[in-house]
Write a structure and sequence with these properties.
- The chain is an alpha+beta fold.
- It has one domain: Deoxyribonuclease I, Chain A.
- Helices cover about 15% and strands about 35% of the residues.
- It has 3 helices and 12 strands; from the N terminus they run αββββββαβαβββββ.
- The strands form 2 sheets. Strands 2-3-1-12-11-10 form a 6-stranded mixed sheet, with no helix packed on it. Strands 4-5-6-7-9-8 form a 6-stranded mixed sheet, with no helix packed on it.
- β10 and β11 form a beta hairpin.
- It starts with 10 loop residues before the first helix and ends with a strand.
- The N terminus is likely disordered.
Length: about 220
């Protein structure tokens, strides 16, 4: 039986996009994959693929890393759609924690707290970290608005300010909304970022950091 799901219906478009920009790291959300679908049915062997599928229909996230880059899974969350992969830099002394996350529009806001717990300074003050994904928070102030009074904004302030992150995407990624965010620590590691046409109703993000190219492609 052929694989079913969002990325399964756009395999050619997905890989055409990847070949156009040739990123070292690819992250994706709403893959709609399940444990019955093998990586070989969707992903090429020039990338190492890490997945966190949803336990029910829909959702799911994945991270693909070029197969010549030293990488390994760091953690996979049991409750929320989050996965983290360690990616070695061009200088092997340095490594990055690359985190992919998806939050459905009606999902629990505790996912923000979990992100802070998983990636915060309290665990490793020297960790270089990238959090990318779709959190479906249309009205959030990712600059860490100190005046935010809502519970959601307070959680975002804690994640961003207390843990040293900067959100580096400032253009809408779906309609007029900024849904796909990139939180970077330290911000100085980013050399450029941009928005390009994706393979779904969201635009894709292309990010260059410390000599590597990182692509966020939803679906």
């Amino acid at each position: 039986m052929p694989p079913q799901g969002v990325i399964c219906n756009k395999i050619l478009e997905f890989w055409n996009l990847i070949d156009t920009y040739n990123p070292d790291v690819v992250i994706g959300t709403e893959s709609w994959l399940s444990e019955e679908i093998n990586n070989a049915e969707i992903f090429r062997d020039d990338y190492i693929t890490f997945r966190r599928d949803r336990f029910s229909r829909g959702g799911g996230v994945f991270i693909c890393v070029k197969n010549y880059i030293d990488c390994k899974v760091m953690w996979t969350d049991d409750v929320f759609e989050m996965i983290a992969v360690e990616v070695k830099g061009r200088n092997p002394k340095f490594a990055w924690e690359v985190v992919e996350v998806y939050r459905a529009p009606n999902e629990d806001m505790r996912v923000i707290e979990r992100l802070a717990d998983r990636t915060g300074f309290t665990r490793n003050s020297t960790k270089r970290s990238i959090i990318g994904g779709d959190l479906n928070l249309t009205y959030a102030d990712w600059n860490g608005n100190a005046g935010g009074n809502s519970g959601t904004q307070a959680r975002i302030n804690s994640l961003v300010w207390e843990n040293g992150y900067s959100q580096v995407i400032d253009s809408p990624t779906r309609g007029n909304a900024l849904l796909d965010v990139y939180l970077i620590r330290p911000e100085s590691s980013v050399t450029s970022s941009g928005i390009v046409q994706g393979v779904s109703d969201h635009l894709a993000v292309i990010l260059k950091w410390n000599g590597r190219t990182h692509a966020l492609n939803r679906r």
